[in-house]
């Protein structure tokens, strides 16, 4: 007995062996609290504890919470730590602990406790498929983390928010937090947060069907894996890789990845926590032609999952058993397919419900029950159409979210540049003021000061004139492109509504998606022209010529039209005002648009020459020709004439043999000033 006491004392260590029991528990718990905090400092979720250490954490903190009920910030810390530690092994116990921590932190006004409590509540809500609650608490954790200026905790909240959106199927909303989190984690010293954010980006890409991008994110995560070699992280990498392989039907590769994930999770996950992954492995066995092994594994897993199985797990297991019995035993497969459909329909698991209905249709057909087979086939087709429409809507929403984020980032970059320019200008003004004050000595200093003041006023007037000209140019650009862009955006809205509200065959849906893509591309080009126009005061004619050549190649070559584009050396030296450069490009675009839309030509000839008064542009085609009058409902010819007249130029139309000829005369910079 004495030897056993000595061994226990040695196990506690020299620093704790002589302490009383309650103090020893405090020392152990404090060490575990610090270790758990260090674990959370590794990434959005923190590496999971080993099962042995988890048992020590659970027992020590549970005893401390029971024996020391004082409602203070230390209790909040203990509640949060225990909830975080049990998030994987015992989520049912972790959830009430997180709620207790949240209530106490609110009562105490403890900001750090509120961050962790909101994160834990959001994490557990996501684990229970309560996505609205998960999103709310993740946003609250993000708000408090930003208030405390804690980038690591902020990255964890962004991770959980993105996961909640993606598991809800709202990939467009998940993109923003995922990209923000990935950008933020790249500034942190540890690479583990970045690795987990890469895996989340891979989940989103796979959910949108963008598998090359998903694989690129996984490859980047694998490169970071040596810097974060813990079991949980390794298991997460191979789990996501297995999911991507499974989505693409690469059963052998998915089986290998799931096997590696299962082995990695073994030290940190309970046997019950491994059951969903083992269910995926059983499905891979069935896909790889091992029906007997898959059947035995699935029956065992279904029995173990029954007390706490989610509808998704029940549907997956029953579908697997139904497929396993086909085609030899349709009578044995039928009850499993029916159970899968019964589990999937109330939970709105449309992919599983579609597969179950499809299996029941085939089973009923094998059993000679034609009417039942027809009903199940109709149900499967309805689910398939719904899934196709949802996938199209998700992709469209994600594309719109990316475009909006890109526009926002561009605006932020422009605003930052303007702010830096203003700061530089203010600094320059301060330097000028100090120089002027230092130089005010005698008559020479006074004259210098007066000259400097006059020069400064002159520069201000010049800057004001340039600003006014730039503002006027932007207003003209907005007026020129408003109708086009507005019309295209209206078309996108109508086409997306048509996709959502009007059912159609897969071919019709594909045609509508193609039309929507074409319209979006046209809107993107129009917005590109707006951005170019905003900066056209810095453009030169040679740069504009490059843009004109690129536009001709983009518009004409895909339609099989030959392009002959020639510019004389004298034309490149012609001095043109910014407004004239803009009008030249827009008239040129309209001329090419008319060729594509009306001419039915095979060849387009473009010439740009210098004229005595400015620039001479001709666009000729060998198409069906035109008499130069405006078509019904068309504004192209009138628009070209209006643009040319606005800068003092002319546009003439001539019918060639064969084809049609557009002749544009635009004045040089000095002539424009005199004309206008």
UniProtKB/TrEMBL annotation:
Pfam families: HATPase_c (PF02518), HisKA_3 (PF07730). It is a multi-pass membrane protein. It comes from Hymenobacter aranciens. The chain crosses the membrane at residues 437-456. Residues 398-434 form a coiled coil. CDD domains: HATPase_UhpB-NarQ-NarX-like. This is Histidine kinase. Keywords: Cell membrane, Coiled coil, Kinase, Membrane, Transferase, Transmembrane, Transmembrane helix, Two-component regulatory system. PANTHER family: NITRATE/NITRITE SENSOR PROTEIN NARX-RELATED (PTHR24421), SENSOR HISTIDINE KINASE NARS (PTHR24421:SF37). Its main location: membrane. The keyword Transmembrane applies. Residues 480-670 form the Histidine kinase domain. It is found in: Cell membrane. One of its GO terms (molecular function) is kinase activity.
């Amino acid at each position: 007995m004495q030897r056993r006491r000595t061994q226990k004392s040695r196990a506690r260590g020299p620093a704790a062996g002589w302490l009383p029991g309650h103090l020893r528990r405090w020392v152990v718990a404090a060490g575990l609290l610090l270790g758990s905090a260090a674990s959370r400092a590794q990434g959005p979720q923190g590496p999971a504890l080993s099962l042995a250490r988890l048992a020590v954490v659970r027992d020590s903190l549970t005893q401390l919470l029971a024996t020391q009920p004082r409602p203070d910030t230390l209790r909040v810390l203990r509640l949060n730590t225990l909830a975080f530690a049990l998030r994987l092994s015992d989520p049912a116990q972790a959830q009430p602990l997180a709620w207790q921590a949240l209530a106490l932190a609110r009562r105490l006004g403890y900001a750090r406790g509120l961050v962790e409590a909101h994160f834990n509540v959001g994490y557990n809500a996501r684990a229970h498929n309560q996505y609205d609650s998960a999103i709310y608490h993740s946003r609250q954790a993000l708000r408090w983390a930003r208030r405390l200026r804690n980038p690591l905790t902020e990255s964890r909240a962004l991770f959980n928010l993105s996961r909640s959106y993606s598991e809800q199927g709202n990939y467009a909303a998940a993109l923003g937090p995922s990209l923000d989190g990935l950008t933020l984690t790249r500034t942190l010293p540890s690479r583990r947060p970045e690795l987990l954010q890469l895996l989340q980006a891979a989940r989103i890409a796979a959910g949108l069907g963008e598998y090359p991008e998903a694989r690129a994110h996984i490859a980047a995560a694998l490169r970071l894996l040596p810097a974060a070699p813990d079991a949980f992280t390794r298991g997460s990498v191979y789990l996501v890789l297995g999911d991507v392989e499974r989505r693409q039907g690469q059963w052998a590769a998915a089986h290998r990845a799931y096997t590696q994930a299962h082995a990695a999770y073994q030290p940190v996950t309970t046997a019950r926590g491994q059951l969903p992954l083992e269910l995926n492995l059983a499905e891979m066995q069935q896909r790889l032609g091992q029906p007997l092994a898959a059947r035995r594994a699935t029956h065992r897993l279904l029995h173990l999952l029954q007390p706490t199985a989610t509808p998704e797990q029940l549907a997956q297991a029953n579908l697997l058993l139904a497929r396993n019995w086909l085609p030899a035993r349709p009578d044995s497969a039928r009850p499993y397919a029916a159970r899968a459909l019964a589990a999937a329909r109330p939970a709105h698991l449309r992919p599983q419900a579609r597969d179950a209905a499809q299996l029941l249709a085939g089973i009923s057909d094998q059993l000679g029950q034609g009417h039942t087979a027809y009903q199940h086939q109709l149900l499967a087709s309805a689910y398939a159409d719904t899934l196709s429409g949802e996938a199209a809507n998700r992709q469209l929403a994600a594309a719109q979210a990316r475009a909006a984020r890109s526009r926002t980032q561009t605006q932020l970059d422009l605003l930052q540049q303007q702010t830096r320019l203003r700061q530089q200008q203010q600094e320059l003004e301060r330097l000028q003021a100090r120089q002027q004050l230092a130089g005010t000595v005698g008559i020479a200093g006074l004259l210098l000061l007066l000259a400097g003041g006059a020069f400064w006023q002159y520069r201000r007037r010049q800057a004001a004139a340039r600003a006014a000209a730039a503002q006027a140019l932007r207003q003209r650009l907005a007026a020129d492109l408003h109708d086009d862009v507005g019309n295209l955006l209206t078309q996108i809205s109508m086409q997306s509504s048509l996709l959502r509200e009007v059912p159609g065959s897969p071919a019709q849906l594909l045609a509508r998606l193609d039309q929507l893509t074409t319209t979006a591309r046209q809107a993107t080009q129009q917005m590109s022209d707006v951005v170019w126009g905003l900066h056209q005061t810095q453009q030169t004619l040679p740069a504009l010529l490059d843009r004109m050549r690129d536009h001709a190649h983009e518009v004409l070559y895909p339609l099989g039209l030959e392009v002959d584009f020639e510019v004389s050396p004298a034309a490149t030296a012609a001095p043109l005002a910014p407004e004239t450069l803009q009008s030249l490009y827009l008239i040129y675009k309209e001329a090419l648009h008319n060729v594509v839309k009306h001419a039915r030509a095979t060849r387009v000839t473009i010439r740009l020459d210098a004229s005595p008064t400015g620039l001479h542009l001709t666009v000729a085609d060998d198409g069906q020709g035109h008499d130069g009058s405006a078509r019904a409902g068309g504004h192209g010819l009138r628009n070209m004439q209006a643009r040319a007249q606005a800068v003092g130029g002319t546009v003439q139309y001539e019918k060639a043999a064969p084809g049609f000829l557009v002749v544009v005369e635009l004045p040089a910079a000095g002539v424009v000033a005199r004309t206008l």
